[in-house]
Every structure is written in C-alpha cells, then in structure tokens.
Amino acid sequence: MSFEQFQAAHESIYSTGTRLLQYLEEIRQGRFSEGDSTKGLQSVEDDINKALHALKEQKYQVAVIAAMKAGKSTFLNAVIGADVLASETAACTVCRTDVRHIEAGQVPRLLEYREGQRRPIVIAEGDAGEIQQKFLVRTREIREKHNPDNTTRFEIEHPIEAISELSSLSGFTLVDTPGPNEWDANFNTVALKQTALEALRTCNTILFVLNYASYKDNAVSHLFKDVVENRQEILAQNTGKIYFILNKVDQKTEKDRDIADVIEDLKRELASFGFPNPLIYPASSRQGLLAKLIAQDKASQSQLKDFKKFFSAKYAIEDEEGNQIIPAPRKIAPQALEDSGIPTIQETVIQTITQNAGWNLLSEVLLILNKAAREIENSLNGQMTGWNTKLEQLKHIVEEYRRRSESARKKVEAVKESVKKREQELISRFSQGISAFAEGTKSKIQNEIDEIADSRVTKSANSEVYQKAEPQASQEIPSNNMSLALTLPNAVPLLGGFSISFKVQHPLVEAVGRVIPKHYESPEYSQYKSSDPYKIRVDAEEEAQEIERTINEFCTPHIQSWWLDTQDELVREGTRIRQQLVQEIQEQIQDVSNELSSYLGEALQVELNITPIQFPSFDFEGIDAQIQYQVEVYMRYKKENENRPELRMRLGDSLCKPVEFYIESVPYEVDIQVEEKHSFYEVDLRETAQAIKLKIDNQASGSRELLQRVIEKQLKADFSSAEKQINDYINRFQSLFDHLLKERETKEEEAPQILAMLGSQKATLNEYLRELTAIRASLDTWKPVQVVR
To answer: Is the CB of residue 497 less than 8 Å from the CB of residue 488?
Structure first.
C-alpha cells in the first residue's frame, strides 16, 4: 500500500463517513421522525463522529533515539525542513520534545509542560529562528539550574515538510528523545532507557541515529544493550518498524572505507546486540537540511555559504575548455537533497506508518462506519416490518422483547462479576511483580553493603569476627554474584513466568573504596578503627558526607533502572492480559447481542444484521498511559493543595512515593546516620542499608496502590464500553417499538406515506453500503502481510 493509495483511501472513507453522518442527521430531523422515533440512533451518530475524529486526529509517532553528537537535531531539522531544533557541541536535549505537524499558515509555537500544571506554557511563537533561540536559552537554563520548574517535556508545533502533501497524516509527530550522555559526562542510561522502552511499546516507528565516525562508542553500546537486553520478544514484534540511520556520511574521506563496507560492519555489530537483519540507511542530514532550505528559498546567507563550502564542489561540471564550473546552489539543491538520503528515509518511514498503523486505522474506522450503516438498516427494517405487522401481534413482540432485554441485562451483570474476578488476578500479578522488585532490590543493595564490610575485614589484620547483616529471608545472594535472576512462580494461570535481573556496572565496594582515605586502612590507624567492619570512621564531616554521596549516587540510578525493567515487563504483561480479558468480554457480550438479534429477526420475520461489539485501538488506551495520567493528576492535585495540611495528611505518604518511581525525577536520597565520636565521624552501613530498604518498601507499597487503581479503572472502562454497546442496542429497539406502537394508534392512516419514506431512506442507505463494501474490498487488497500493532 503506497502512501498515495493510503491518501486516496483516507479521503474516500472520510467522504463517505461524512455523507453518511449527514444522511443520518436528515433522517432524525425528518417529517415522521419527531419525538423518540430516532432517539436510539443517537449512539450511532456518536460512533460515526468519534470514528471521523480519529481519522483526522490520529497521532503517528516516530521516535528518534541517539547518543550525543550523532547529529540527531540536524536529522530532525532535515525531516522538518526548518532549522528549528538547536544543535551545538554541548548536549542540548534535556527531556522529551514532541515536534507536532501543523498546516502551513499556522503560527509555530514552542510549548513547555511542567509537572503538576494543567496547561502548557507558551515559551515562543513565530518563525523557526525565534523558536530555536528561545528553546536553546530555556534548555541551558534547565540544565544549569537543575530543572527547578520540574519541566517534563516540550512540544514544538511546526509544519513538517516530509508530510506536507499528506493531509491523512496530519497527526504526524516526531519524538525527540534525550541521548544517553545528554545530561552528564558520566554515562547514565536511566532517562534514555525510560524513553526508549516507552517508544518500543507505543511509537509507530523507531529511528536510531548513529554517527558514521563513532558508531562503536561505549555510549552507543550501552544504549543498545540497555534497550534490547531481555526484550527479544519486543524486537521480534517490532521487526519492520525499527530503522538505523548512519548519519554524517558526508564526513567520509578518500582514505576511509566505502560506506557499503561500513554498513555491513554495522549490521554485524547490531546483530550482536540482538537486532535481527537490521535495516540501515546512510544519510547526510546537514546536506539534506541545507538543500531543502535552498529549494524552498528559505536559506540564510550563512546557510548558503555553508552549502557552497561543504557540498557544492561535488556537483561541479566542466565546460568545453575543461574548466570546472560549480552551478548555483538552487540548481543543484534537488539532486543534493536526493543524494543526502533524507527523502529515502522519509518515504520508508511514511510507508511503514501507512502500511501498519495507517492501515489499521482505516480498517477500524471502516468497520465502525459499516456497523453504523447496518444499525441504521436494522432500524429501517424494524420500522417497515412494524408498520406491516398486525397491531396486536406487534404488541406481543414488544412485550416479549422487553422481557428478553431484562434477561440480557442480567447476563451482562454476570459477565461483570466474571470480569471482577479476573481483575483481582491481574492486580495480584502486578503486586507479585512489585514485591519481586522490592525484595530483589533490597537483597542486591544488602549484598553490595556486605561486600564493603567483607573488603574491610580482608584489609584489616587485627579485625575481629563480626556478624554479617541479616539477608532478606526470601533471597540468598552469594557474595560474588553480580547478577541476580529472580523468578516468581506461575501463580496465576493466565500468566507466564516473570523475571527480573539485577545487575550493576561496577560494584559499590569499588566506588566507596575510592573515597575512603587510604591512611584509615593503615596499621597505624587501627587503634581508631571500629571492630565492626559495618562502621566506617573518618576524621572529617566532609569525608563522611562523601561516603554518603557515593552510596546515594550508586543506589539512585540502579534502583531506578531496576524499577524501569520491572515496570516495563509489568506493562507489557498487563497489556497482553488486558487484551485477553477484553476479548473475553467482547465474546460474551456478543453472545447476548446475538440472542436478541435472532429473536427479533424471527419474530418480525426480517433479516437483521448482527451488531458487532467493537474495541477500536484508537479508543483503547494503554496501561502505561493510564499510569502516567494518574501520576499527573496526583502531582497536579498535590501542587494545587500543597498549602492545605489537612489534605496532605489525607493523601498520605504512600501515594507520594510511587510517583517518584514513575517520573524518575526525585533522587533516591537516603539520610545516612553519621555519628560524631571522640573527634571522628562514623558511618553505620547497617543503618544505611535499613534506610534504603525502608524507602524501597514505602515506594513499593504506594506503587501497588497506584497500579491497583489504574487496573480497576481500565477494566471498568473496558467492560463499560461493551455494556454501553449492548445497552444502546437494547434501548434502540425499545425506543423504536415504543414510538412505533404510539404511531400505529394515532397515524394509521398515514402508513402508506411513512412506508414510502422509509423505503426511500433505505434505497439511499443501500448506496452508502455499496460504497463501504467497495472501499473494504479495495483496502483488503492492500492489507499488509504482517500488521504491526
């Protein structure tokens, strides 16, 4: 399915849906439609409106992930077709930035979203240069002041040239993510990992941008390792929507290897990280951006100068006398753009979106429109048959239908009870996962603390026998084990095995060993040392604080990273289970609907269409999105009421703690007890370990509460969606029959005119049904072999 075909199908579906909606509105406003005759069709009208809205507003997200200095901002600018994102030698992406497409003619804006605030703040509006400058100033301010305003993300509203001719992709969004080394020279992948895992779950396409000159750097290796480790099933599911951009190929010199050889080497490198058959595209983003700006007559004098300096010479031609002539930039811009590789990448991304997420959307909207048309047809058939049925017989049918409707509602209640039981299973499963995180994390931290004590015993010739800190009862970790695999039993039949791995890059004992002054371990100092190796004595308060800082800086990223792994697996597993439950709800409610349809068809002696119970994906929010929403609601509520102590007490500490898990913005600081004795300071590692464990337990408890609330809310919404659909069906025919009986008693003489009107309406409806059938047949010929959800 080419994007031209997608555009044509999109326009066709939207046009037919709009005319079907107008037709329904005319029916409901017709001469014989006063009162409650079409009241039951309100839900059908709502469904059509929702489907058409989704068709126009559906977001297609393309995540761009890269290590610093890979040229990510320049690549994004090349796709956007404007120099709007700043690129400089220092890292300049401090948090997620969404670049959302707007139509040409609208005013571009830069918006900043802050924790606890309902509405974004407009930082800048105007041209690309104005936005770029203010964005850069704001980014530097956040970095230098350590984000005092709790900024969570930015959004840039700007036309994206790559899809400027595709109105069907108006919801196209580029997701710019912070690289693994954007914040600090010391590599920390927690923020990147969170964004990358979210992208793997939710974005339609993922682009990894690599620097041609440094794609084997440690930062890049860590990036791939953290993203793909233990997530082979995600890679398998997402094959076909992950691409690698080998950027800055224009920096190749004559003595360097051919680009084709570099790509083959990179393929082997990526395969070693778990990416099967990686798709790699070479690109010169700088050349592509400058060529686009020149072609659009938007290039500044500085940009024209850069293009001439770095790229024009490649397009020199010889005149008859053998002199080299370099054409004007505008003449060679189209070819330079093509040679940059940017158009090929754009087409590939658009093709991926239209063949997968785009096709799914068109198909689902088409199903909803077809369902709406068939429900209108059922209504018309019911009315026409009702006018042709003897009045006493019709009364009997209506009475029996009312009785069967009550029975149907009782069956729906039984389904609701079944859903409540499964809900508890899912909550229990999530609780087990959180407990696994808490127990494994506490055990691993204790193990690291024990390693410090072990090392101090080894170094001390005069040390006494000491009692090791009590390990967690549920986990025994050998002292030399740097990687713990914790596996829970399959407690819930629906669920598969659940595993969490706890790893550290470098042991805590090494970090602490570097900050304890060497003379404290010397024999001369032994008389001042504690016989308990869990107690470290130093002379100065600053030295004790340095030990405290070292332990905190070790624990914070590791605990956050382990929680991310836990949350990622819980979200993926929870999503899978939720989909199973939704399917069960759908099937059970569908059976109830089918029973009513069968009765009405037989009683009225008319063929009624089966009304499908539907759960379109554009109306099917993920668990992680609900978690984020609940966190934002809580943080906003907390901020709005922070000066009201009675509300703070009511909210309690347990709900505040899980917020730190999810937004990953609050350091895992632990107040280490430092005791002053006889002119020295003592750090008690046992108390340190206990303080960390207590904080983990508090946050785990709050996280269980938050997750339970999310699960309960989501499954309630899922059931309510199916319940509403069956109730709409029941009420539609009930209101139709009630009105029909009333009309039969007062307007019997107008029956011929009413039947003629209904016949005319049905003839018009048949035209829409034929259109929808033809669109479906065409769409099915473009159905991808494997649709990526």
So the answer is: yes
pLDDT beyond 50 at 559: yes
The dihedral formed by the CA atoms of 574, 577, 578 and 584, expressed in degrees to the nearest 10: -170
With cut-offs at 50, 70 and 90, classify the pLDDT of residue 649.
very low
Judge whether 115 and 150 are in contact, CB under 8 Å.
Answer: yes
151-157 and 109-114 as β-strands: parallel, antiparallel, unpaired?
Answer: antiparallel
Sheet of 60-66: strand order equals 121-125, 109-114, 151-157, 96-100, 172-176, 60-66, 205-211, 242-247, 279-282
Q: Which of 229, 592, 285 is nearest to 409 (CA)?
A: 592
Alpha-carbon distance of 192 to 227, in angstroms, equals 9
Of residues 37 and 206, the one with the higher pLDDT is: 206
Give pLDDT, residue 634: 67
CA dihedral 590, 591, 594, 598 (to 10 degrees): 180
Burial state string for 105-136 with b = 16 or more CB within 10 A and e = fewer than 16: eeebbbbbbbbbbeebeebbeeebeebbebbe
> What CA–CA distance (Å, rounded) separates 33 from 188?
66
Contact (Cβ atoms closer than 8 angstroms) between residue 91 and residue 183: yes
130-134: Cβ within 8 A, 24+ apart = 131/84, 131/156, 131/158, 132/83, 132/84, 132/85, 132/86, 133/86, 134/110
> To the nearest 10°, the Cα dihedral for 396, 402, 408, 414?
-130
Decide: helix, strand or coil at residue 429: helix
Half-sphere exposure of 274 (CA within 13 A, CB side): 16
Conformation bin of residue 95: beta by default, left when phi > 0, alpha when psi is -120 to 50: beta
Comparing C-alpha atoms, which of 506, 517, 523 is closest to residue 459? Answer: 523
Greater confidence (313 vs 144) lies with: 313
Instruction: Compute the Cα dihedral for 330, 334, 337, 339 and give only its sign.
Output: negative
Mean pLDDT lowest among 389-393, 400-404, 503-507, 725-729: 503-507
List C-alpha distances in Å: 40 to 33, 376, 740. 12, 10, 13
Strand pairing report for 483-488 and 498-503: antiparallel
Amino acid letter for position 36: D
C-alpha to C-alpha distance for 589 and 593, rounded to whole angstroms: 6
Contacts of 292 (CB under 8 A, 6+ apart): 78, 81, 161, 333, 337, 342
Q: Rounded CA gap, 290 and 303, in Å?
A: 7
Which whole-number Å values give the CA distances from 158 to 65, 722, 730, in the listed order? 20, 39, 47
- Comparing CA positions, the residue from 177, 253, 240 lying closest to residue 205 is 240
Cβ–Cβ < 8 Å for 177, 208: no
Q: 177-191, 238-252, 385-399, 690-704 — which is least confidently predicted?
A: 177-191
388: which residues sit within 8 A by CB, 6+ positions away? 755
User: Binning pLDDT at 50, 70 and 90, where does residue 650 land?
Assistant: very low
Using an 8 Å Cβ cutoff, are 475 and 443 in contact? Answer: yes
Q: What does the alpha-carbon distance between residue 68 and residue 177 come to, in Å, rounded to a whole number?
A: 11
DSSP-derived secondary structure for 69-103:
TS-HHHHHHHHHTS--S---SS----SEEEEE---
306, 90 contact by CB (below 8 A)? no
The CA–CA distances, whole Å, from 268 to 92, 237, 271, 393 equal 31, 21, 5, 76
